[in-house]
Design a protein that fits this description.
- The protein is built from two helices and two strands; from the N terminus they run ααββ.
- By secondary structure, it is mainly alpha-helical.
- It has one domain.
- It has a two-stranded antiparallel ribbon.
- The model has no long low-confidence stretch (mean pLDDT 91).
């Protein structure tokens, strides 16, 4: 017969010192991933742009509009 603990599969119980050591190690991994994601996002922002040569027409409540006309100002 299964008990609640078997089903939930709780993590081990540790001392505060062990928990803090594990938490700090995990925090370093999280920071490394965040820094890598930031570098990736920067690289994406630095991708070259492509000039839009085609005239796109969009349907608006006021009728057909070009891309530039969709943005006020």
């Amino acid at each position: 017969m299964s008990t609640t603990n078997d089903i939930l599969n709780h993590p081990r119980i540790a001392s505060r010192t062990d928990w803090l050591e594990s938490r700090l190690a995990l925090l370093e991994r999280e920071k490394a991933i965040t820094r890598e994601r930031d570098r990736l996002n920067q690289a994406r922002r630095e991708l070259p742009m492509v000039r839009i040569e085609q005239d796109y027409v969009f349907q608006s409540p006021e009728g057909p509009k070009a891309l530039a006309e969709l943005f006020a100002g």
